[in-house]
Specification:
Layout lengths: L3 E4 L5 H12 L9 H10 L8 E6 L2 E15 L2 E13 L8 H15 L4 E5 L11 E2 L16 E5 L11 E3 L7
Parallel strand pairs: 4-5
Antiparallel strand pairs: 1-2, 2-3, 3-4, 3-8, 5-7, 6-7
Length: about 180
């Protein structure tokens, strides 16, 4: 199966919303509003179109990933990073490497844009294959109520998070 990863276009928005809804429909931890989160994040001035990617095969969108700006506030210092959320694959295309391709390409683009790290709230058995480690490795605490093993980070540049601590600041649409 030939998969093309490309930047999401406005013409894709409706299909991406349906894709996200389908991808999360049978997941026990999902609240069913993931597509609404993506729609809201697109309207934020901080939205980075180059980091909203789709996976396409045979003229059908089968996956989507979004990276948004994220800050760690340490006194009067701000460390800029990214938050990966969500990654969505249509159920019939899951477990075929599409999510891996989206994550890998998203990381490549993020690094080319000058980002040095990324955070994710996700499955601790999945994300380590992309070099994500618990954020506690850098003494960065997860948001309140989040299991520490599920809040992870990856450095695109070695030691990018060395010495970084502070409070987390997501875009307001996340409600964190």
């Amino acid at each position: 199966m030939q998969i093309t990863i490309r930047e999401e276009k406005p013409d894709d928005y409706h299909q991406v919303s349906e894709l996200i809804s389908a991808a999360f429909s049978n997941m026990p931890f999902a609240d069913g509003d993931e597509q609404l989160l993506v729609e809201a994040l697109r309207k934020n001035i901080a939205f980075i179109p180059a980091l909203s990617l789709v996976a396409e095969t045979c003229d059908r969108l089968v996956g989507h990933i979004l990276f948004t700006p994220f800050q760690i506030i340490q006194g009067d210092k701000v460390h800029y990073s990214l938050a990966l959320a969500p990654v969505s694959i249509l159920p019939e295309y899951q477990k075929q490497g599409i999510g891996s391709k989206l994550i890998t390409e998203g990381h490549r683009i993020a690094k080319s844009l000058g980002y040095t790290s990324c955070f994710v709230l996700g499955h601790p058995d999945y994300y380590p294959r992309f070099a994500y480690l618990p954020s506690s490795n850098w003494k960065i605490d997860p948001p309140a109520g989040v299991p520490p093993e599920a809040f992870m980070a990856v450095e695109f540049i070695p030691r990018a998070l060395s010495g970084v601590t502070g409070s987390l600041k997501y875009l307001p649409e996340f409600g964190i």
